[in-house]
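User: Can you predict the 3D structure for this chain?
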Amino acid sequence: MHDTHLIEKIYQSIVALCRQNGVVKVNNLDIEVDEGSHIEGPHLLSHLKDRDSAMFGDWTNIHVEHKPYEKLTAVIKSIDGDGCE
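Assistant: Here is the predicted structure, written as structure tokens:
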């Protein structure tokens, strides 16, 4: 349940950052989450694809690292993607 809320917040943050920077298709995502989280790359990618299949897809590589953060914390380290033409 907690991870579901965190994943949705991660999605919203990624979309906001992409809009601010003109990214329409995410190719690589590097993220850190707290050590108690069960979020892994494939799990996160599945959710992101369900929410926005134009921005996220099988082309999206996600790297998740677990760090000693407070519970329900995620840090988006980098987003690499394509902009609109």
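Residues 29 and 79 are 5 Å apart (CA to CA). The chain has a mean pLDDT of 94.
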